[in-house]
Amino acid sequence: MKRAAFGHIGFPILLLLPQLVIIAIFFYWPAAYAVQSSFYAQDMFGFTSTFVGAENYTRLIDSTNYLNALNFTVIFTVLVTFFSLGIALLLAVKADKVIRGAKTYRTLLMWVYAIAPPVAGLIGVMLFDQSRGNITQLLAFFGYEYRLGVNYWDTATAMITVSVWKQIPVNFIFFLSGLQAIPQSVREAAMIDNRSGTSRFWDITFPLLAPTGFFLLIINITYSLFDTFGIIDTIVKGEPGNNPLTLVYRVYVDGFRGGDLGGSSAQSVVLMVLVLILTIVQFRFLERRIHYT
Amino acid sequence: MTLKTTLSLGLAAGLMVGGAAQAQTEIEFWHAMGGQLGETVNQLVADFNASQSDYVLTPVFKGTYEETLTAAIAAFRAGEQPNIVQVFDAGAATVIGAQGATIPVQQLLSENGVEFDIEDYIAGVRYFYADSDGQMIGMPFNSSTPILYYNADALEAAGVEPPATWEEFAEVTGPALLESGIAPLAQSHLPWIFTENFFSRHNLQFASNNNGYDGTDTEIMVNHPAIRAHFQALADWQEAGLFNWYGTGWGDNQNPFEAGEVAMWLGSSGSFGGIADRVEFNFSATMLPYWESVTTEPTQTFIGGAALFAMSGFDAEENAATAAFFDYLDSVDAQVMWHTETGYVPITTAAYAAAGEQGHYEEFPAAEVGIQQLSLPAGDYTRGYRMGFYVQIRDVMNREYSRILTGEATVEEAFEIIEAEANDLLERFAQTQG
Predict the structure, then answer these.
(1) Are B150 and B162 in contact (CB under 8 A)?
(2) I want to staple B218 with a disulfide (CB 3.0 to 4.6 A). Which of A281, B202, B209, B375 is the partner?
(3) What is the pLDDT of residues B325-339, one digit of tens each?
(4) Distance CA A24, CA B107 (A)
């Protein structure tokens, strides 16, 4: 690569400074503070603070409850990411083929994007409500007694369904524009070489979509881990009980609701490390297999 | 009149207005009362502001109980705390434990020349927000206690009376209601009704250290044979169709009662106003049933809900304003208004008597049940409890009770887990207190 055309090191740093300051204030400083407070037991008002070493961390490892949340978070993230990417890709491929009324289809599919997560969560709760929910009534018609907030996996299903539904439009928009960026000549050449639509998709279209897919994969994992907070909060209504919880929601429950600042900090540090590892793995191993044009 | 005199007169008038405005001390009050309750709070504050000219109180709605407490603590750490904050029952230990964060209400009132006699308060109200010496720290505000609501029409159709004991429910009331085609019983908030107040109603010790009042090295004593038997009975009743459980959400359990699907519901005396507005059947309420096999002399329950705390860090004048508001809040007029509008109990015996004189209980007999229950004889363990990290302890209870009622755990297993995890949390809380 050619060296940047700056005669002096000072000027580029000056240009970067506003961004660096923002990152330092809003990310590094709070992160460092979280690491620090994860080694203390502190009362909420900040009067006393006792150094407890790694105790906040060892307690996490010993807690079956925390390991359950970790377990559920993995399942939740995998399912939400898989279904929201898969369904969006299917819809995008189909919408790409539509000739008549294409705009209407696309607009309709994108609409849901405008819904805020808590609102999506609320709509989900209404659909899955124990006594009045439409989906509950539909399932009852087929003889299944669906019990949101009572049955662990019933609640999990609602959380996953609503989260997937909320994320599909974003993925759809990206996939659709990715598809439309594939040159017509490439498509025509593929048509001549291969008659089967399915294998044409996997051999030609899918690899060309890979950069979009990789970007979306990271976005969706982050979404499942963090942005589903509002949906989960609406579904469990602040009373977790025996309902499934993700790690992020637990940080909130223990820290903000429960007042355990040290324990909650330790949890957020663990989460930070997990995301860091995940990001490194993705960029180290997965990105190598992707070809950017 | 010359221009000069007009100007100086105007200036003088301006100064006087300014002076008057300055003499008014402005204080802030953060609360968690939304919707209809929030409007009643605003009315209460407006009445206080209109009742005198020295102080102006501004109410600020801060979200749920947990959000209000968290906001107040964050504000305190930043030196921007409100003068008054509403704190709910489970958060009381956090605030009372943080000495120096608040001024004990009893001290605040006497320093500002307001007469205070703890005997003026209804028995079950006196000590929940007090320290181990019985000094009142927080001013009880929206106080409620668990009672049994019943659908009078459904009970009449089944030919039964509301049960006084759980034995009566299991043998007579429950089966008769089930026979008549209605689900007999549901309840909201298992930790509050079937744990904390279960211990108080039967005068059983809930935690060491005098239920936690006397120190932070407290151990919970929830794994008691009486409550294990109670939860075993619940599980059996659920199996037999006598008891329905709809999850940890408060409304999940209240809605079926209001919809007429469940004949009896255990809820808060503060739910009275809302139910009266919504249901179409005749309803009434009675006291929380007890187990005759555990005690033949059931004792009082204590208040839940929330209290108002005066935060520290203000000058004498602002503290005087806070004291004046608390004094107003204790007045018969304010209490009767709050009680009749919301269904929360009046906190003083004088206000209770006044509401009675106004004929409130002749019109709504159910509105009196909570106060009667709070006025029952006290026992050694009926003043309340004081445990740190109690919000999390309640979460543990909710989780384990759910597991019992969904058949994932036996009663023995669940109570062992609750006791172990709660004691672990209490130990951690003691650590945070230095």
Answers:
(1) yes
(2) B209
(3) 999 999 999 999 999
(4) 45
Q: Between chain A and chain B, how many beta carbons pairs sit less than 8 Å apart?
A: 112
Residue type, B49: N
Residue B48 buriedness (CB in 10 A; 0-12 / 13-18 / 19+):
buried
CA distance A232 to A249: 8
Distance between CA atoms of residues B375 and B257, nearest Å = 27
What does B262-307 look like in DSSP terms, one character per residue? EEEEEEEGGGHHHHHHH--S-EEEEPPPB-TTT-SS-------SEE
Under the banding of pLDDT at 50, 70 and 90, the label for residue B184 is: very high
Assign B22 a pLDDT band (cuts: 50, 70, 90): low
Query: What local confidence, expressed as pLDDT, does residue A2 receive?
Result: 52
- Report how far residue B140's alpha carbon sits from residue B129's, in angstroms, rounded to the nearest whole number: 7
- The rounded distance, in Å, linking the Cα atoms of B91 and B70 is 10
Distance in angstroms (rounded) separating the CA atoms of residues A91 and A95: 6
> What is the rounded CA–CA span in Å between residue A239 and residue A211?
41
Of A41, A241, A258, the CB nearest to B391: A258
Is residue B147 within 8 A of residue B376, CB to CB? The reply is no
| CB-closest option in B64, B252, B406 to A238 | B64
Nearest CA in chain B to A42: B432
Strand pairing partners for A218? none
pLDDT (tens digit, 9 = 90+) per residue, B271-303? 888 888 889 999 999 999 999 999 999 999 998
Of the pLDDT bands very low, low, confident and very high (cuts 50, 70, 90), residue B232 is very high
Instruction: Quote the pLDDT of residue B1.
Output: 42
Residue listed under structure tokens 């010496």: B133
Q: Give B49 or B4, the one with higher predicted confidence.
A: B49
DSSP 3-state of B388: coil
CA dihedral A61, A62, A65, A68 (to 10 degrees): 50
pTM: 0.89
* CA distances, B318 to each of B23, B111, B367 (Å): 11, 13, 36
Of B94, B402, B432, the CB nearest to A242: B402
Tokens representing A176 are: 């659709």
**Taking a C-beta distance cutoff of 8 angstroms, is the pair A281, B410 a contact?**
no
Residue showing tokens 């923002």? A22
Burial of residue B47 (number of CB atoms within 10 Å: 0-12, 13-18, 19+):
middle
Which residue do the tokens 């469940």 mark?
A: B262
E strand or H helix that includes residue B326:
helix B316-330
Residue A234 identity (one-letter amino acid): T
How far is it, in rounded angstroms, from Cα A206 to Cα A92? 12
